[in-house]
Amino acid sequence: MHVKISIMFSLGLVGSSIGSLLPSSQYIFANPSPAATSGFRIPTVHESAIQARRILRLENIGTLSTVFPSDSSTSQHAIHPLEQRPGGLGGVPIGLMDYYADCEPDSGNPTILALDIATSFKNVAAGSNITLSLRWHPQDGKWHSAASLPRFSLVGHLEDIDDADASKVGLATCFVKNHPDAVAWLPGNRIHTSRWVRLVVEEIYWIGGFGDRAYIGWISLDAYHNVTQQEIDGCKLPGEKSTWGWSEWL
């Protein structure tokens, strides 16, 4: 009996300790007090577009979603034997991580280094459409509910960037600044055939966070393109570190 009581007491202490580490329930389940929400409003579509362009600027990794071609339309020469691709994947979507960079900031079209051997670009070559999905990762090191943070998808098509345009805007320098390891597979490398492409944005679907305090829905292409560089620079995302420094005074 004494042993049972001792075990129950110990478990109670453990539960109490764990409970002390968890966020207060008011941050998870309760709505903010009226005083805390006075003057609060859900961001407009334009303000959401600014956030999307800010995320595009600060992030550099996203998920490319494509669809496998039908077996009948798949060229066996396009599938490497070591890939061991199973049959019956026609029409099945797949999302894969890939690098991008905001190297043409005025356009809002992300720059991608396409490797012809990669599944995403094989699918596009076979006729698939493509979507780039991004989400914001706070920089302050504090705990944030991932469900409360903004994320969005850019629906569009890939467009090749010729060498002259790539050189004019310094794509290689911009991309390697974001992804130093990508220097190994820049166009002309000995490992894989690669090329510069831009994802030409056609549609934008936005989830700003929880629906009672953020906009969720489509952002028009005009709203996305009409965002100015000044607005992007002036936007601060949840958990974004301040870029202030003494250099601003010099």
Question: Helices, strands, pairings?
Answer:
Blueprint: H1 2-21, H2 34-37, H3 45-58, E1 61-67, E2 93-99, E3 111-115, H4 119-125, E4 130-135, E5 151-160, H5 163-169, H6 171-178, E6 194-207, E7 216-219, H7 221-225, H8 229-234
Antiparallel strand pairs: 1-2, 1-4, 3-6, 4-5, 5-6, 6-7
CATH topology: Pnp Oxidase, Chain A
Helix content bin: 25-40%
Number of beta strands: 7
Structural class: alpha+beta
Q: How much beta, percentage-wise? A: 15-25%
Q: Mind telling me the C-alpha Rg?
A: 23 Å
Q: Which assembly state applies to the chains in this document?
A: single chain
Low-confidence stretches are 24-29, 244-250
TL;DR?
The chain is α+β, with helices and mostly antiparallel strands and 250 residues long. The protein has eight helices and seven strands.
Structure keywords:
21% strand; seven-stranded antiparallel beta sheet; alpha+beta; Pnp Oxidase, Chain A; 250 residues; 7 strands; CREG_beta-barrel; 8 helices; 28% helix
Task: Please give a structural write-up.
InterPro entries: CREG_beta-barrel, Split_barrel_FMN-bd. Keywords: Signal. This is CREG-like beta-barrel domain-containing protein. There is one protein chain. The protein is an alpha+beta fold and 250 residues long. It has a single domain, classed as Pnp Oxidase, Chain A, CATH 2.30.110. It is 28% helix and 21% strand. It contains eight helices and seven strands. Strands 1, 2, 3, 4, 5, 6 and 7 form a seven-stranded antiparallel β-sheet that branches. A hairpin with an 8-residue loop joins strand 6 and strand 7. The chain starts with a helix and ends in a 16-residue tail after the last helix. The C terminus is likely disordered.
